[in-house]
Amino acid sequence: MSGQKGEWVAMPGYEKKDGTHKDLIYPTTKEARKVINDAILHNKINSQVVGPIEITEETRPSSYAGTKAYGSLIINKSLALEIKVREGQYGDWVTMPSKKGETGRYYDLTYPITPQATEAIKKAKDMVLNKYKTIK
């Protein structure tokens, strides 16, 4: 994206009913924002960033129909993914950030690309569901 202060990276999100923007994925530190901007705008990959994946979670209850709780998966204390605990036909489940397409189908905005990331996110989703059960 381009603005008054030059080019910048827009994170996936949506416009809320009040006209404000809500990011679904966002860096949690200034350093993480710089790494993302450098990687995307200047094709600079910081190899020190790639390493073991540590995921923590935050969970808070929701009063919205069908959504039991909101939360964040925080990856390596640098990048947050907004998630939801939803009620489904087969029980509660955790949704990753997604966007509704023109056909009404939802598409994930994020997904793991390595077996290690897949396993870490699966464990984090389980943590979120277990935490939800203790706060409901």
UniProtKB/TrEMBL annotation:
InterPro entries: SpoVG, SpoVG_sf. The keyword Cell cycle applies. Pfam families: SpoVG (PF04026). GO terms for biological process: division septum assembly; sporulation resulting in formation of a cellular spore. Keywords: Cell cycle, Cell division, Septation. This is SpoVG family protein. It comes from marine sediment metagenome. The keyword Lipoprotein does not apply.
